[in-house]
Target: ABC transporter
Amino acid sequence: MSISIAELRGVTKKYKVGETEIQALNNVYFNVTKGDFIVVAGPSGSGKSTFLNILGSIDKPTSGNILFNGLDITHVNLEALHQLRLNKIGFVFQSFNLVPVLTAYENVELPLLFKNISKKEIKERVTTVLEKVGLQDRMDHLPARLSGGQKQRVAIARALVGNPELIIADEPTANLDRKTAISIMELITKLNEDDKVTIIVASHDPYVIEKAKAKIVIQDGKIFKEELV
Ligand SMILES: Nc1ncnc2c1ncn2[C@@H]1O[C@H](COP(=O)(O)OP(=O)(O)OP(=O)(O)O)[C@@H](O)[C@H]1O
Model:
C-alpha cells in the first residue's frame, strides 16, 4: 500500500499584480507517496515553483486543501508550519540559498540549531551528511570558495541533515554545467534508491527527467499529463 506524504486537493493559487489576476494553479489534485521520485516538467511560468512551494508549505493556496502525512494542514498556524518544514521537508533551490558568511559545515548545521539536539549529535549528523555528499574536505570553506556543484552539495546536505520525509528540489541543476549537473542527479538518484528518500523535483533538464521514476507536466496551472518515465 502506498503511504501518502503530501497531497493537494483541489488547489488553486491566484496572484494579484495591480489590477491583473494571475492563476498560477487551477484546481490541482496530486499525491506524493513514500519512495516516489517525481519530476515536474512544463514550460516557464506554467506553475511548477508555485506547485512545489504549496506542496512544501512555503506558500498557501487561495483555495483547496493541503495534507501532510494524511493530516489537513491548510489552516494550521505559522509555528506549526515552521515545525513541519523544519522536521519533515528538505528544500533545494536552483540558486543554492546558502548563507554566505557561514562555512559549509555551519550552513548544514543551521537547521539543527532550531531543534533540541545535543552538540555531540549535531556534530555527528553534520559530518556524516557532508561525507555522504562528498564534501568531507570542504567543511570549513565559505560558499564563495566552493564551486557551483559543491554549493549545491552543501544545499543537499542541509536539506538532508534533519532526516526529512520529503525533499523538494526546484531546478537543482539549472545553474550547473553538464558534468556537475549529472553528478548532482546521481547523488539525488542514489538518495532515492539507497535511502528511500521521497523526492519531487522541478526541471526542464532531459537528464533529470530521465533519472526520475515518474513525470508530471504542468501547463497553465494544470497537471495535464502523468506518465511513468
Ligand atoms: N509572487 C508572485 N506574484 C505574482 N505572480 C507570480 C508570483 N509568483 C509566480 N507568479 C506568476 O505565476 C505563474 C506561475 O509561476 P511559477 O514561478 O510557479 O512558474 P514556473 O513554472 O516555476 O516557471 P519557471 O520555469 O520560469 O521557474 C507565472 O505566470 C508567474 O508570473
Remarks:
- The longest helix spans residues 178-195.
- The mean pLDDT is 93.
